Amino acid sequence: MSKRVGIEVSIAISEAVGLARAEVIPAYPITPQTHIVEHLSEMVANGQLDAEFVPVESEHAAMSCCCGAAAAGARVFTSSSSQGLSLMSEILYIPSTMRLPMVMVVANRAMSAPISIWNDHQDIMVQRDIGWIQTFAENGQEAVDLTIHAFKVAENRNVSLPMIVNIDGFTLSHVIEPIELPDQEDVDKYLPPFKPRYKLDPRRPITMGPVGIPEVYTEAKVAHAMAMKNSRRYILKAWKEFEEVFGRKYEPVETYRTEDAEVLLVGMGSICETAMTAVDEMRDQGQKVGLLKIRLWRPFPAQEFRKAVGKTKILAAIDRCLPPGAVCGPVGAELRSMFYKIPGAPKIFSFVAGLGGRDVTVSRFEEIVDKARAYAKKRPRELYEVIGVREK
Amino acid sequence: MANSDAIVGWKTITFGCHILEPGNSANFRTGDWRSQRPVTDKEKCIRCGMCWIFCPDMTYKQDEEGYFEADMEYCKGCGICAHECPKDAITMVPEEG
Fold it and tell me: Which of A75, A124, A229, B47 has the fewest CB atoms below 10 angstroms from its CB?
């Protein structure tokens, strides 16, 4: 039987990677991801995990090493954050179009300047279009479960794409939570050894990563985009199998008290836990308010999202990312595009909150709901609004 | 750039854009964008093979009489052969059209 233990979420993620029997782990430490890779290096050094831990000289090297290891057919894991993730940027587009499966946990953190080690989603939104499957965890248990799920999806021969599990830095990475770590036997049942479609093998030489001349590049990119689109069914299937083996159910969009809701908050990651408390309080006051949590960010589950919205007429999209000069944050933009000119579409208002580690409290969610209701009656002057910013 | 076999739609392009057949680069005609071509004057040529040695694209082939001739499917018109020829037997002639 699996047991529920009080454990730091980062350590639990490392244990999950161990249970998944990762074979190559090239990683470079950066706050707030450090404990994940530190613990993995200990596990390898202690002989608890039979893997190659490659202590690379930078994140650029880490991701390059991941590509090489995945091309050779290994089960690959790495982890990064913020500036480190950005240093990988040049490489991140490569394994996805080359269809090299690997799993990365990103402990989400703000981008400098000013220097901030604290949590928001700006680091991953920089990498929004790298063509990796991306999920967002809300708590420690989800972080563990989504990590194991990620290997299952990424390595599915019909998917064969790299996958990122986003966990909020500090808010999740450094918190001790009661977490149920699965049994090795169950993980082995869920996750058979990785069998790649193609691998670098001198006995059967192939070329990976050649030049894509103008006559080929578009088709290569479209093939990748279609693989991403088609991955949806395998992501859902892997969650269904996860439920059968481990008993915990996951969906691409999760609803919380959305029945008859007039206003729905839309968020990703750990703020959804506070948002649920806010929804409870507002419901107690008789307000018809609910919450939609986007767990699968790429490929965006538009079908499930529309269904989850139902007949609600007001959406308040919360971005933990401020893109200067854009019409609104990436979550807001995604929802507005998705509902554009659809009959009966809800009014979508975009809010930016929780930058650089600032807490989004229950009262802030109430403020967002109040504002969304007011804007539904009288159009706001701006296309998005930053919540909790001091004006003077 | 004409290997018509490789110019396929996204449904048939190889998985991950891998090249699954080793040593197939000769299948690609890479001389399409040449602006000048080397012409060898056989009166001057001593069949020394300097053009064959120096050609960076290995386009020169030796014929039955021992003369070297550039393959226009691959020659990019760089002119190194003409520059290196000890007998000035090779002239670069502009491509027409």
Answer: A229
